[in-house]
Amino acid sequence: MNIKTFSNSQKTLMLLGIIGICCSCAAVFFPQVRGSAILLGEKIIGRQINFPLIWHGQIVLWALYGLWISCALVIISLNTASEWKSILNDEGRLRVLCFIVLLSVVILFSWQCDDAYHSHKMSINFADGKGLVYNAGERVSASTEPLNTLIVGIIYKVFGHIYLSSLILNIVFSAFAIFILLKYACKTTGNLWLATIMLSLCSSFISYTTSGLENAMLFFLFALLLFLFLSRDVFSKKDIAVSAFLCSLIFMARMDNALLAFPIMLYIIIKRNDVNIVKKLLFAFLGFLPFVIWEIFSVVYYGFPFPNTAYAKLGTNFGLLYYLKHGIQYFYGSLTKDTLVLLPSILLVILSFNTKSARQKAVSLGIILYYAYILYIGGDFMRGRHFTVPFFIACYTLMSKYKFNLPLLQFSKHGFELSKNVHIKLSRTAACIFVLFLGSILFLLKSAPTESGWDERRIYWGYTSLINRICYKLNFYPVAITDWSQGSKESLDNAIEKGYIGDIIPYASGLLTVYDAGDFYLTDNTALQDPLRARLPALPPVQSTEIGHMTRDIPDGYRESIQTGKNKIADPYLHEYLDILWDITRSEKLFTRDRLQKIVSINLGGYDYLIDKYLENKKVENNANEEAQ
């Protein structure tokens, strides 16, 4: 390699890359440079005194981004424009390049959300032989992702580091999902470019590849399912069994994602081939055995078919309109803050009406069902989280079904032409009605206060991001991962000093339970880990927190029950209900006749009258207090 033979453009790129590398390294390794950059940023952008940790962390982050881009410029300068043109036009080499870019973005944005640590607590207890439980000694599941929780627990048992165990698993699952999409769905260079642009620019998708939640696992499982579903002309008995097996793993990863997978599985079963319907159902049942076994285990072990979080989040008595309102706001918030996370799904559903492909219609039906469910449950407090899996499914299906060329949008005498294969025809009247309807809805939502969810990655970035953890280990960044839960740690320390065996702390974060609580019984005001209060109505919406974290009242004597381990609830009906619950969740023996009878009865509503009586007594008491005042 002779630099003298380089063109002026190559020399310019190399010079810019070297300057960028020097500046980025200076910002990473020299605190004085970072301090100057912070002061300069505060003067230009505005003093951000309220977020010093995030602001400091962003300096290191952007410096590392600059280093990444600068290295890329140096690498690009080593080849001429004609050489790069041949690389970018070569499907195989471009696919490798796109994979490296996407994986680099995933790793650079790696982080963990606090909610993931509620599952991590269960993983640690499982690895330590205390059971797949949240609080040792009580069989309650606070995880909506049992499969991910189990696998993280196994990895933690081997490596002994919960943060890296979860993060590496998420990165591996995401990498395989991206590889399958680029390898088997993208058949042209245009598709590779478009897939890379969409995935890398979708903030929600990148965020939840490494959040510690179930999303990365679902990306991988759906990539496998879609590969099988879209690449087969007919489905053999083996295909049916494998598809059902993947669906069962999806259900175990997160049960409500069954809505996305169900139409696909239904199509595979009813698709005409040489297998009769009885054999199809038999092989489908064999594939579903893992989920069936898990549900049997869940009922026998925990006493209930669903995790405790499902009862806490949905059993609020708020009414359907309340959830629908927040569901609309969740859609609107994601559409305005991260538009790209919804666009592929919407496009796929629209195109499914103009195609004869039953497979595409099946995928679209799953997305429609799932979106209806998200609307029904009121969305979530994590912006974009529940839309990432439909986003990935839509991207995979679009890349597999259509060949896109750049530029994507072209004008023709027929109207808008998307690539060379997709035509969207819409009459002027229908288009006007659609635009007016959409505009009025957006105006109404825009003029009303919205709760569209939080940007979780921004909130926890200064504490749990991989970049900041590395900087902390190298003494570049003074914030420990446990500093997030510092406030609630004081309440925990006070409870331990008083000799309690457990307590209800207003906000018992996942980080607190993993790094500070040990075997101390811990629950909070949202009752995600609390089997009793999860089955009581939530406080009125004005007093509750965001969707998914509704605040529960503490019945008289219940906190003392948690602190001592003895039932001290004052109300006789609720006292009896807690005795029944504790017989199910705390008894040493699983297979006693009395316990199994109580499990059947409580799931069939046999003890609901006790809660009804308690609520009646509570209402009378509240009315008496109001009259006295």
Rg estimate, integer Å? 27 Å
Described by strand count, sense and barrel closure, the largest sheet is: 3 strands, antiparallel
**Strand order within the widest beta sheet:** 1-2-3
User: How does the overall form come out from the CA principal axes?
Assistant: globular
State the helix count.
28
Fraction of residues in β-strands? under 5%
Distance between the termini: 89 Å
| Derived structural class | mainly alpha
Report the uncertain regions.
Answer: 47-55, 408-427, 444-450
What does the average pLDDT come to? 84
Helix fraction by DSSP (H/I, runs of at least 4): 55-70%
Q: Report the strand count.
A: 5
In short:
The protein is mainly alpha-helical and 629 residues long. The protein contains 28 helices and 5 strands. Helix 6 crosses helix 7, helix 11 runs antiparallel to helix 12 and helix 13 runs antiparallel to helix 18.
Describe the overall structure.
The protein has 629 residues and is an all-alpha fold. 65% of the residues lie in helices and 3% in strands. It is built from 28 helices and 5 strands. It has helices at residues 8-29, 31-45, 52-77, 81-89, 91-108, 116-127, 146-159, 162-185, 189-201, 203-209, 215-231, 237-253, 258-270, 277-301, 308-314, 320-337, 343-352, 358-376, 388-401, 428-447, 456-464, 466-473, 486-497, 510-517, 558-564, 572-585, 593-603, 608-628, and strands at residues 409-412, 415-418, 422-423, 502-504, 521-523. It has a 3-stranded antiparallel beta sheet, with no helix packed on it. Strands 4-5 form a two-stranded parallel ribbon. Helix 9 (189-201) packs antiparallel against helix 19 (388-401) and helix 26 packs antiparallel against helix 28. The radius of gyration is 27 Å and the shape is globular. Mean pLDDT is 84; it is low at 47-55, 408-427 and 444-450.
